[in-house]
Design a protein that fits this description.
Structural class: mainly alpha
Number of domains: 1
Distance between the termini: 28 Å
Radius of gyration: 19 Å
Strand content: under 5%
Largest sheet: none
Number of strands: 0
Length: 152
């Protein structure tokens, strides 16, 4: 019975890594996308050209789903060998997802400001990159830790 229960949860860490990362990406792109649409509306109302850079801002939080996917694969490979990294998947996925959500909020501000003033895009991209770094660090460190623990 205990083995059966454990087997039911063998993919929990892997599912959490991709699931929470994707939830953050969905929320982040949603927030950024809504702001981009509102900024375009302001541009159209003022007879200004609608900047396509706002599409790029809206897409920034998508990369965190990729990090969650790669972490999921690493955790799933370890689970196939009987090692379950539930905590790393859950906490790591939540941290990556939070980065995506906050990146989307920052991208929303970038969209609104860029549409109004038409400058500063380099500064906005740097800030979005700094927020992205949180997800990259979590992804890299956890992936390395899973690899070390599953190797021996």
């Amino acid at each position: 019975m205990e083995h059966t229960l454990l087997a039911q949860f063998n993919d929990l860490g892997a599912a959490a890594a991709i699931g929470f990362s994707a939830i953050g990406s969905a929320l982040g792109t949603g927030v950024a996308g809504m702001a981009a649409i509102g900024a375009w509306k302001k541009c159209y109302a003022q007879n200004k050209a609608a900047p396509m850079l706002l599409t790029v801002f809206s897409a920034f939080p998508l990369s965190q789903t990729l990090y969650g996917f790669i972490l999921m694969n690493k955790i799933a490979a370890a689970a196939a060998n009987g090692q379950y990294f539930w905590g790393m998947g859950i906490i790591g996925g939540m941290a990556i997802g939070a980065s995506a959500y906050m990146q989307g909020k920052a991208a929303a501000g970038a969209s609104d400001t860029f549409a109004e003033f038409g400058k500063g895009q380099g500064n906005y991209i740097i800030v979005l990159g700094i927020i992205e770094t949180v997800a990259i660090l979590v992804f890299v460190f956890l992936q390395g830790k899973v690899g070390m623990l599953s190797a021996g």
